[in-house]
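Troubleshooting log. The previous structure file for this entry was overwritten by mistake, so regenerating from the original sequence record. Sequence copied from the archived sheet and checked twice against the printout by T.R.
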Amino acid sequence: MKKLQYMLLMLPALLSVACSSSGDEGPAPTTITFTTEVQTRAAVLPVKSDFKSGDGMSIFRSTTNSIEANNIVTYAASYSGSSWQVSPVATVVGEEKPYFFAVYPQVDKSADAVDPSAVPVNVATQVDYLYSGQGVSASESNPTVNFTMHHAMAVIAFNIQSYVGGKLTAIKVGNDRFPTAGVLRVTRGSITPTAYGVYEKSFNEPLTTTGWTKDHPSMFVIPHTIGADGMPVELTIDNRTFTFTIPSMRLTLANKYIYYVTVTEQGAALLEDKTETIDLMGETEPLPDVPYSHLALRFKGQKFTAPTITATGLYGMVHWGDGAQESYKEGLVHNFSVAGEYTVGFDMWNVEDAQVSYSNLEGLQEIDFSKF
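Regenerated output below.
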């Protein structure tokens, strides 16, 4: 009986110790889970529209809705096909309300090596870099973080009508003002260039006179403004090179630019008025299949007055024979730097009902209508 009384007396003390111990530990941490959605409906390559098993991204944790805090924690996240596995495990305890940011692809396996205000970007990787934007909060009552990922890069694509046949094997772009590397800020997707130069990408695309309706040869580029001198582009087709220049324009993030290019024996020409700017939320349109014609004139002298060509929906390029070229319009006059004999070529489309007239025949040696 005494033994039982002793045990009953000890029980309140044990309960008191247990309660005291539990209070010291505090509430148990709640694991945070992460989900992602890519902000796009574009189903064409190379734009990323969803994540695949094995994809990795970097997740950043801040105590405030800012990446300027001194206590940023970085997590390495790997997609398993249905969810993100995060290392180390992210948790929230009690009244904590941390904010999270993300960038794709995963920057570095070392958590301490990543700065969310300066994530390295390189054109050579040809990656569709994605960023989360403003921070997403988590709490013990709401431990799921939903990231909406946005595109940070621009895309340039080429729809090529080739009248020389052949196969496209490479596209080279850039100059000393073309950004090839930079650093990305995850809160707004802005990229500050850190290196400039030329980038070349390989292809293996048979060329036709109709171009493509989808999957245009394309590449990711860092958003920037092409200067007044333009951006040189070089196409390699069956070991031959064809060059043209993209004029001054602004390339903005999350936009795709399709440049329509024609390649003839005269060279490559950019049809500037047909350039398309497409939000990556949209789709691309096919290149219209219109008849092509060529008019060649042999001229001797220094000042050449182009013939007037009129037709419904007509457009084209003039190759002056001295390396210069420009879009066709009525009233063109070209002054050669040196008097001599030149072959002037007109690449034209929509000329079925065309009328050709000459206001000045001076210096005109020969007219070849055989391909017109």
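The helical segments are 2-25. Archived copy saved in two places this time.
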